[in-house]
Amino acid sequence: MSERPVEAARGDALTLAASVRSGNRRARDVVEEHLEAIAAREGEIHAFNVVLADEARAAADAVDTRVAAGEDPGPLAGVPIALKDNLCTRGVPTTCSSKILEGWRPPYDATVVQRVAAAGAVAVGKTNLDEFAMGSSTENSAFGATRNPRDPSRVPGGSSGGSAAAVAAGFAPLALGSDTGGSIRQPAALCGVVGVKPTYGAVSRYGLVAFASSLDQIGPFAVTVADAALLYDVIAGHDPMDSTSSPAVAPRVSATLHDGASGVRVGIIDELIDADGVEPEVRAAVERAANALEEAGAKVERVSVPSVIYGLSAYYLIAPAEASSNLARYDGVRYGLRVDAEDVGAMNARTREAGFGREVKRRIMLGTYALSAGYYDAYYGKAQRVRTLIGRDFARAYESFDVLLSPTSPTVAFELGAKASDPLAMYLSDVCTIPTNLAGHPAMSVPYGTGRDGLPVGVQVLADAVQEPTMFRVAQVLEERA
Amino acid sequence: MSERDHYEAVIGLESHVELSTTTKLFCGCPNEFGGDPNTRVCPVCLGLPGSLPVLNRTVVEYALRLATALDFEVPEESIFARKNYFYPDMPKDYQISQYEEPVLKDGSIEIDGVRIGIERAHIEEDTGKTVHVGGGGRIHEADHSLVDYNRAGVPLMEIVSRPDIRDADQARSYVTELRGVLRALGISDVKMEEGSMRVDANVSVRKRGASEFGTKVEVKNMNSLRSLGRAIDFEIDRQVEALEAGERIVQETRHWDEADGRTHGMRTKEGSSDYRYFPEPDLVPLAPDDAMRAAAADLVPELPAAQRARLVADWGISEADARVLVAVEGLADYAEAAVDALHEGTPRDVANWCTGDLLGYLNESGLSPVVLPLAPDGLAELVGLVASGKLSRNQAKEVLDECLREAKRPKQVVEERGLAQVSDTGALAAVVDEVFSANADVVEEWRHGDDNVKKKKRGALMGMVMSELKGAADGKTVQALVDERLQG
User: Fold this and answer.
1) Is the dihedral angle over the CA atoms A161, A163, A166, A168 positive or is it negative?
2) Top-confidence residue, A260 or B386
3) Are B50 and A208 a contacting pair at CB < 8 A?
4) Which of A318, A338, A474, B400 lies 20 to 30 angstroms, CA to CA, from B138?
5) Contact B50/A206, CB-based, under 8 Å?
């Protein structure tokens, strides 16, 4: 393994949880150690919108009390976790990095927040993101950009850049993010950590502030594949509060994590590895990853999934359309920012004008247009047909393959400001990750060597719906052979 | 022939019905009228960021019951859609409704032998309520506004008729029948006055014999059956007058003003609203399975039309009486319970009381038959007292009145007032004798008079006997005795 991140010194989640559960380490000490790491470097990185030091200490003490009392403190006992700031946390500000949610404290916890807390994890802070998860660099935050711990002149990716950076900087071994078009996988790749986008419906969205409801999915960040598997097993599973949550029991991925890749059929997606803008080092990393899997007994071939090249266009109609509706509620009437005006309509308009950033406004306008009478069929309707086509092409590929491989991001981490004024260039960062969201399938990014300027490269492992166990197995092999 | 007679109205009705489920459409908050503002709310019905809707299964069951009752087709799958527009009483600034794929399609209802088509019925959520303070209660002139979200998320069913209705009477009959069906199904309170049923009318007119429709106008804000009829009549006249004057009808929404009896164009900016409907991504398609469909069909009780037919056949009452019994909430049930408790007398007697004095009392008191101070078996008792000749009809009216006002049983009133009717023929004959002796002149006039005089004098004698008895006798018996005496 060429490069081990700094946080290895503080231990991975599995090791930490085991030592807390066995009473060898106090959760409180684990948390203090991470709070010190945050204090040392957060000023430079700005991974968090808020650090929950007091709350974390209290939660850690509660874990220690349970251990002392001989109770089961849960599989994530005492493990610090960073929460993307679009996950509702009861009584704790949840901003989506937007001015429009100024002062809002949710009266409830998101289902995933409840589940990680019940598993003994300790939330250490709410992480920065591109406003309402719209962006690929975490520069579109009302509270300032997050920097990449690998090279602070670079972006961490986005939109879950704060969560990726928190894990990469060793502020917490685990984090939760949300992925609508690549918002977990792309920053994971750029920060050199593991990031997972589960099957749509595998993890409850209840309490995730919606960006594009049919695409959004919550998933784990971790330093290792095994830690990501541990967190996935905690958060996956049916939730009666989310109608789109799958009623089936989610298969536990940890159980088969070490089953190897022997006999697994792996397809390298032609259209993505050869896409415009894919850096040669990134392409080479994917090829080396494929070779490593072959050496581990997998059968590797190239495969064409023709319609994925239309993914980006379809995505930029569907996601903004849903967003234009999801973000309508920020109108100054009930919570968050209000800019007073002479009547309700003007108050709505002025509040939204002052509260939303440029990228959010751009997408609301795009989506409103795409849904307008007379344009619906040409834009939204057509994008939905492309979506169906992508699903069909993937289905055909999965008749012959168990997993697919591609780059996660076409490039390594770019400089802050490099694409900030060019939305289209920024949108292209997600060209490899978007098709998965449109299909509703799982995919994850695994660090695989370095590219330009010695920066981390992520390889994306894609699988068919609910095939997370196979996807994690393959990722585990890649991690071992990186 | 007036101008109006050259025209034919084409009317379609959109009925919005609040469903009487225990909880709201997409969350567990209670679905109850009233309550302190913003006390029946949760993250879901307040549309808080991150919250998600989960469909109330009972609402689907209700829709399936309605499907059986009104012969709707239930598509394999229907989908929810978002209707997007900004309004402060709508927590998400979109309404979850159904658009292209409603839960029910192509039903119908029969009104006086005519089938009125029902295009569709769909499920949607209600909004909250805004109270505008100052500025005469209008939103644009108010000092400030307060919003109560207790009603937000209450389940509604919108039932859209085809333009098969031709006049105000038929429109009222359609609504009456629809209310009866919804009530019989137990899926809504259907009270127009309380807003649990709102009916908007699409009205257009055309020359008789024309096959094209005229330009339609949507009329809103009718809060009773009466105002629905008045609004439609007004609107038909307005449109006919406008056309006769060479004007064009503008497609618009008009508000009915109950006070001045006119419809008024709304002052809001026109331009067709674009609701940017799209499928609701937070909900999965609604696909009722066979078991659910079958279970709902089993829950459909006897519907008003069938009930009327049965009452006419079994009780020998008129169609008109049956219509009244079935149309008034709970009245037919009350009458049936009274008939079940009957010892003497006929179901027809029960029906007569119910559609007469009892209905008068219900209208006057505003009470429902369910909470009447006189239980159905009490009415049966009263009918029995009349049938057995113990009370005259006039006495019985008084007894009923006291029963209702004082919450007493008929026999108790009869006892307290000493009202037992003189049914002893001997005693009656004595009174008749007395009257005949005291009024021999009248008897003489009867004897020598023509038919007309005979009739008058006989009536006078009858009246004197009854007055002597203070009405406490059966009229027919007295008449027989008087006739016997005159002839004899």
Assistant:
1) negative
2) A260
3) yes
4) A338
5) yes
Which residues in A lie closer than 8 A to residue B283 (C-beta atoms)?
243-244
Q: Nearest to residue B74, comparing CAs of B358, B404, B297, B299?
A: B297
What's the pLDDT tens digit per position in A7-25?
445 789 999 999 999 999 9
Tell which residue, A123, A132, A95, A103, has the closest CA to residue A34: A123
Predicted model pTM:
0.88
Q: Closest residue of A to B279, CA-based?
A: A322
State the CATH number of the domain containing residue B460.
Answer: 1.10.10
DSSP, res B248: P
**Domain shared by B326 and B395, yes or no:** yes
* B410/B430 same-domain check: no
- Residue in chain A closest to B286 (alpha carbons) equals A243
| Same domain membership, residue B308 and residue B293 | no
Does the annotation count A84 as an active-site position? Answer: yes
Domain count, chain A: 1
Q: Do B54 and A108 touch (CB under 8 A)?
A: no
Chain A, chain B: beta-carbon pairs less than 8 Å apart: 103
Residue ending a domain, among B275, B297, B319, is: B297
- Cβ burial of A288 (10 Å; 0-12, 13-18, 19+) is middle
Count the domains in chain B.
3
Residue whose entry in the numeric block shows the structure tokens 């957060």: A42
Which neighbouring-strand residues pair with A220?
A176
Could you give phi then psi for residue A249, rounded to 5 degrees? -75, 125
- The chain B residues in contact with chain A (CB within 8 A) are 43, 46-55, 82, 84, 86, 88, 91-94, 139-140, 145, 147, 272, 274, 276-278, 281-284
Q: Give the one of B43, B49, B274 whose C-beta lies nearest to A373's C-beta.
A: B274
Q: Which domain holds residue A17?
A: 6-257
Of A209, A244, A376, the CB nearest to B282: A244
pLDDT at B272: 58
What are the tokens at B377?
């078996």
In a domain, A477, yes or no: no
Binary contact (A205, B274; C-beta < 8 A): no
Do B54 and B201 belong together in one domain?
Answer: yes
Statement to judge: residues B107 and B67 lie in one domain = yes
Q: What angle do CA B41, A50, A30 make, to 5 degrees?
A: 110
Q: Which residues of B touch A209 (CB under 8 A)?
A: 49-50
3-state secondary structure of B196: coil
The predicted structure's pLDDT at residue B422: 63
Q: Looking up tokens 């008068």, which residue turns up? A: B360
The pLDDT tens digits for A88-140 are 999 999 999 999 998 999 999 999 999 999 999 999 999 999 999 999 999 99
- Which of chain A's residues have a Cβ under 8 Å away from the Cβ of B47? 329, 334
Note the pLDDT of residue B137. Answer: 66
pLDDT digits (tens, 9 = 90+) for B418-441: 776 666 677 778 888 888 888 888
Domain span holding position B457? 425-487
Are residues B172 and B135 located together in one domain of the fold? yes
The three-state secondary structure class of B157 is strand
Contact state of B47 with A329 under an 8 Å Cβ cutoff: yes
Predicted confidence (pLDDT) per residue in B235-275, tens digit: 999 999 999 999 999 999 999 999 999 999 975 544 557 99
What pLDDT shows up at residue B481?
84
| Tens digits of residue pLDDT in B113-127 | 899 999 999 999 999
What pLDDT score does B359 carry? 93
Nearest to A328 among B54, B86, B140 (CB): B86
Q: Do the bridges between strand A174-179 and strand A80-84 make them parallel or antiparallel, or are there none, so unpaired?
A: parallel
Among A19, A97, A141, A159, the one annotated catalytic? A159
ipTM above 0.85, yes or no: yes
What is the per-residue pLDDT for A4? 43
Chain B: give the shortest CA distance to residue A433, in Å.
21
- Domain at A52, CATH number: 3.90.1300.10
Question: Looking at the structure, do residues B309 and B293 belong to the same domain, yes or no?
Answer: no
User: What average pLDDT does chain B have?
Assistant: 91
